[in-house]
Specification:
homodimer, DNA-binding, Tetracycline Repressor, domain 2, mainly alpha, elongated, Arc Repressor Mutant, subunit A, 2 domains
Chain lengths: 182, 182
DNA sequence: TTCACTATACCGTCCAGCCGGTACACAAAC
DNA sequence: GTTTGTGTACCGGCTGGACGGTATAGTGAA
């Protein structure tokens, strides 16, 4: 793997394992097996490193959404259903240390959140495009957000079986039934 | 207002307006109109200050939940409905800078999140006590979490009218209809 | 006078960013 | 084919500033 990506991975791992406060250039360098100078060669500042982490998170989300969208059956709420599946993907951001990018960004410099805002705007558009009921889609996706952030904050509610049931319930809400409104 | 609470308010405001990184003892003191020595008189360390912020958040949540619970009609999902109303309360944590306590805690010292975890455990119990369908309640409450965290991260989706519709939809899902299961 | 509270000065530590230097690969010049 | 030059990747020490925490002195009310 490239040193560039290696550094980002190391930084993510630090945030997950030791907390945002421990993310220093020195620590990231050591975790990546190089020196601080090496880190600063690839990222010209700490902000820049965090920008890279955020971009990684976004890329991963886009990739995951794209993959699941292809697999998802056509019809209403296709994007919303995609989001649900992506949220429960065991290799997705919800379960990976990439989420730490958010904490790092909001902590060190809230301006670095801008790409995230843009990402949400894109999602919003997609949802609006194929959701018969935008409130329904928004609620379910917000719930996915909730689950994601809970994990990010170290809050664990229920086991994997409960997660499975929750996912089914979410998908159920996105499957229009004839003769039943809610 | 007591100096104690004044300092906490000032700290919250800093986190909201300038980001967690700017929350220093000096800054909190200045914002509260006293000196650093004064802050350290009331809180024996920065961790202690953040503990105070977290406690404030929890107290506010408990208070809000209690109030809305009284007003909420009896029946299934009473606690879940309470959570929805509390989430959209304009003076509640979702719209107040108190949420910054979470960011400060997770950033400076993840151990400080312990009271939050306990709070979630309490909520979980309450929900389980009066929710006919725990998945339904969990999903709706997770959505409230999602909205809360989105605001915390500076993500604004939709205006107040959209919020209103979202709230109604959430409450709708918690109002059992005869002859319709989901 | 005592106590609750606040101000000021200071110390030790940590960290971001800078910079001079090294190693190596490749290439053009002679 | 040796020398000289150029660019990339990385190293590690240094420094200036910021921050948490301590010590101590001061102040006003009871």
């Amino acid at each position: 793997m490239s040193t560039f990506d290696n550094i980002i991975d190391a930084a993510m791992a630090i945030v997950r394992d030791q907390g945002v406060a421990k993310l220093t250039l020195d620590a990231a360098a050591k975790a990546a097996g190089i020196s601080k100078g090496g880190v600063l060669y690839h990222f010209k500042s700490k902000d820049d490193l965090i920008r890279g982490m955020v971009q990684r998170l976004i890329d991963q989300c886009d990739q995951l959404n794209h993959d699941y969208y292809q697999r998802e059956s056509e019809g209403p709420y296709r994007w919303a259903r995609t989001m649900v599946h992506a949220c429960f993907d065991p290799t997705g951001p919800a379960n990976d240390p990439v989420g730490g990018a958010l904490l790092a960004a909001i902590t060190v410099n809230p301006v670095l959140m801008a790409p995230i805002h843009a990402m949400y705007a894109r999602w919003q558009e997609r949802l609006a495009g194929d959701s018969p009921d935008m409130e329904r889609a928004g609620l379910v996706c917000s719930a996915m957000d909730g689950l994601f952030f809970q994990r990010l904050m170290g809050i664990r509610l229920g086991d994997s079986a409960a997660s499975e049931r929750l996912m089914r319930h979410a998908l159920d809400l996105l499957t229009p039934k004839e003769g039943a409104s809610s």
